[in-house]
Amino acid sequence: MSDSKLRVHEVTRQVELASHLSAWEQLAAEAPYGEWFASPHWVLPWLDAFGHPDRLAIQFVYDGARLVGVVPLVRPTASRKGCSPTRVFPVNNHVRRVGALSAIPMAELLTVVFDQARQTGRFRCWALPQIPVEGEFDQALRAAIRRSRVLEFSIEETHSAVADFHGGWDAYARTLNPKLVQKLQQKQRKLERAGGWTFRTITEPSAWADGWSDVLSIEARSWKHATRTSIVNEPGTATLYEGVGTRCVTAGLLRLHLVAHEGIPVAHAMGVVSRGTYFLLKNSYAEEYKSSSAGMVLVWRAMAEAASSGCQRFDFLGDAMEWKMELATSSPAYRSSTIFPSSNVLCLLGRVKEQTLKPLARRLGLKRLLRPLRRVGA
Fold first, then answer.
1. Euclidean distance between CA atoms 214 and 60, whole angstroms
2. Which residues contact 25 (CB under 8 A, 6 or more apart)?
3. Range(s) of the domain holding residue 50
4. Stated pTM of the model
5. I want to staple 377 with a disulfide (CB 3.0 to 4.6 A). Which of 66, 202, 261, 350 is the partner?
6. CB-hemisphere CA count at 13 Å for 20?
């Protein structure tokens, strides 16, 4: 059971966030447990870009007047048939995890949230996408599920890519394919020695507006633009990253790396630094400069700068694409968790489908059975 001294305040409308914002920002800076993506620097721009002002379900946990935890949830804008979540992490293709922030042990925080939600009738089906299969939050979540006596099933395991700098930059580079390192170093030297190429890293608010303008210029000339997945033409994306950049540069978290040729923006790598990790939020290059490999050189430089500034990890985010894996030292797995009380029959059917029927069909090689199973608890 949870600590009765703690209380949970669920905020359901964006206008109500103002009274919690200062304490939330302080918790994001000081909490010993948690994920940067649960901070207001990410959640608030995400809500501006993709959220609905009256579909919030953010859980603020207080110990007296002190904010000790935040679990940023929202209510889905549309329901699916069957096991339909009533609370979810604000995750889309731009972020693969959210997590929580806590000044108390994470398992204790989640137990309090689950218990009070169940007592108030808010706990019917919660979806928590992209949870690290191993790590602090996953262990805390499993402990809270046991304590609160609720049920869970997991689906959609994916992988990301991470570079570990614990032994320093040189030790990290020795873990890579020597030919890859030599190739990147040669391309970097070629750009640095050629006339007209300039590199810069933006960390100050005074340079942010010009830097953001360069990012938009690069994105509009990238291969992503043709597929309508660039910052410029994908709905809500510009709002998200401009908001994140504005908040993070003010907080001293932004690292925006840019390369230009004769004054023309060529490539960018936009990231934030938090708790010793550089998170690569977005990167791209102008298609007409593809042969220069400026985009890869810029990421390589961003990694070197992160390591030299004391970062222990470089998280590429997103899927474990081939170019990321060439630079990674590990590929963490992620799962999507559905949590529900035993009284939710539709979720029980979903659990049977995901944990029993689908694995059995795969083991037996009965692919034809997988098609009707998609309709069970879907």
1. 37
2. 39, 40
3. 6-161+333-343
4. 0.90
5. 350
6. 27
